[in-house]
Amino acid sequence: MTSFLVLVQLTVAAFASATSTTFSVPNILTPHSEFSPPFMVTPRNLGFSVASVSNWGYLHDYSINSSYTLTSGFQGFPTLCSIQNRTFWFAGPVQIQDAQNRTLASTSSSVAMALTFSHPSWIRELSPRPDSSWPVIPITPAEQLVSITYNQTYQFDATAHCSLINDTSAVQFWDAWSYNSGKYNCFHIGGSFLVIYTLDPATNKLTISRPAPVYQKESIQYPYGSFSTLTVQGMTYLYAWDVYVPPSDDMGGDSGTGGNHRDIHVAVAPTSTIADKSTWKYYDNSTGTFSSTEPLPTTRRSSAAIIILDEFSTEFENTFLSASIFYSEYHDAYLLVYAPIYPPGIYVRFAPTPLGPWSSPGTKIMDPTQFGYSVVRYALASPIFFQTDGNGGQSLLLTLSGDYKTQAFKLNFS
Ligand SMILES: *[C@@H]1O[C@H](CO)[C@@H](O)[C@H](O)[C@H]1NC(C)=O
Ligand SMILES: *[C@@H]1O[C@H](CO)[C@@H](O)[C@H](O)[C@H]1NC(C)=O
Ligand SMILES: *[C@@H]1O[C@H](CO)[C@@H](O)[C@H](O)[C@H]1NC(C)=O
Ligand SMILES: *[C@@H]1O[C@H](CO)[C@@H](O)[C@H](O)[C@H]1NC(C)=O
Ligand SMILES: *[C@@H]1O[C@H](CO)[C@@H](O)[C@H](O)[C@H]1NC(C)=O
Ligand SMILES: *[C@@H]1O[C@H](CO)[C@@H](O)[C@H](O)[C@H]1NC(C)=O
Q1: Which of 169, 171, 210 to mutate to test the pocket of ligand 4 (most atoms within 8 A of CB)?
Q2: What would the pLDDT profile of 195-220 be if each residue is shown by its tens digit?
Q3: Which of 4, 261, 288, 412 could, after both became Cys, cross-link 241 (CB 3.0–4.6 A)?
Q4: Contact predicate 383/398, CB 8 Å
Q5: Is the minimum distance from the CB of 63 to ligand 1 under 6 angstroms?
Q6: CA distances from 213 to 38, 194, 221, 279, 381 (A)
Q7: How many Å lie between the centroid of ligand 5 and the Cα of residue 151?
């Protein structure tokens, strides 16, 4: 084990200042068709009645060792990305543990593959191995410089599934946190950035790159894309949380630590120029118009929001950390699936376009307390069970993290 860890550290050093990494991808197929819905659809309001929910358990890599599990850190829970009939799980900090929950290895960011949709929690980790490029999300030369100058460590987290932008590429937004490992938070910079994944079908190589210009500074700019991304008809919708800080609780301004996620804003980018931020436009829901001027989150702008999640009675119930927006062929609707931290519940709303108007309030589709959750920190949904269950969206893959591990659930609508 010692030599394994040493090798991993050497590999990290070798890739420390790259802005892209490349992995060989095994030929493990999870056939999946991607729909390209029109901008406006006619939702079939089927009432969202649920026929069944199955728990597939913690994400698990049997190839490492049948008694080992992969454990995702507090922020770094796994997110999905399907490209070319491969389904990847990207995550922030991940640990490999044995049956006694002892840590055997860890990565700052990781990529795994789904083995089969019949057992959505069975995965094959690609990253924490000495023979692969590691870590998955490359650190930029600028981060490298800060890292050396201030003795900082970087942590990367993704909180939304990716969006396929063409046959071979997908985009995802990640958040960066930097901290001094000796003195936590003594110097902190952070922000969200664009990552592009490209799977070359000729060579079976997955390349993960960070186009330098798209870096949205935490507190200073909205983290467009970190809430959710959705590509429809050549346009990519980049959803961001606003942070609502009640006057009585103004601890952290818009930093994301003192307020509660509540309002959802959206920017739209032509998919082909997504890495050029000057081509993005920002939507104001109150006027129904787009502007090229990036709004800055100095005050709450709820009139510009496309969704406001404040349907519950207490601050705590109205606190959200993650949600998903996607198209469901079964409902012929854009769906928003979200979960308050406490009390646990999974809710859905629907809309005829990626901009809304969204139904309100949400319909509860799952009670996580039935599966032992007293708190849900992160909950993501994906209509990925296309081939096995007919219409995409009749079955959802839900991933829930209440503790440090993520379990996969399959929910069937009736
Ligand atoms: C798998 O785990 C068992 C029991 O902990 C151990 O004896 C064995 O060496 C492990 N195998 C591998 C390939 O790591
Ligand atoms: C994915 O799998 C489906 C079903 O097997 C097939 O029709 C399709 O061509 C595949 N797509 C790619 C990009 O390989
Ligand atoms: C390991 O973690 C799991 C899930 O958090 C828990 O159910 C199990 O009891 C733990 N096992 C040990 C030996 O602590
Ligand atoms: C897909 O998008 C990526 C990223 O924008 C781009 O580099 C690539 O050329 C595109 N591929 C095709 C086939 O359009
Ligand atoms: C950087 O941080 C590490 C971990 O806390 C510490 O061991 C090391 O001495 C620090 N280096 C400098 C130059 O401060
Ligand atoms: C957004 O605008 C639409 C159309 O005017 C409206 O129906 C909807 O209620 C607005 N959403 C919010 C959250 O205010």
Answers
A1: 169
A2: 999 999 999 999 999 987 778 887 78
A3: 261
A4: no
A5: no
A6: 30, 9, 14, 12, 29
A7: 6
Give the single-character DSSP code of 61: -
Reported as a pLDDT band with limits 50, 70 and 90, residue 17 is very low
Q: Output the pLDDT for position 140.
A: 80
- What CATH number corresponds to the domain at position 22? 2.115.10
Written as six digits, the tokens of 159 are: 């909180």
DSSP 3-state assignment of 322? strand
Whose C-alpha lies nearest to ligand 1, atom 12? 65
Q: In what order do the strands lie in the sheet with 50-58?
A: 50-58, 406-413, 395-401, 378-382
Structure confidence by residue, pLDDT tens digits, 178-197:
766 665 544 455 788 999 99
Output DSSP code: residue 164: E
Q: Return the CA Rg of the chain.
A: 20
Contact 330, 394 (CB under 8 A): yes
Does 363 contact ligand 4 (Cβ within 6 A)?
Answer: no
Percent of the chain with pLDDT over 90: 46
Best residue among 27, 33, 199, 387 to mutate for probing ligand 2's pocket (most ligand atoms within 8 Å of CB) is: 33
Q: Residue whose CA is closest, atom 3 of ligand 3?
A: 101
Q: What is the largest CA-CA distance in the chain?
A: 61
- Of residues 375 and 336, more confidence is placed in 336
User: Which residue range(s) make up the domain with 11?
Assistant: 2-413
For ligand 3, the distance from its centroid to the CA atom of residue 389, given in whole angstroms, is 33
**Number of domains, the chain:** 1
Position in ligand 5 atom list of the atom nearest CA 183: 5
Residue with tokens 């890739």: 15
- Give the number of whichever ligand sits closest to the CA of residue 306: 6
CA of residue 329 to ligand 2 center, whole Å: 18
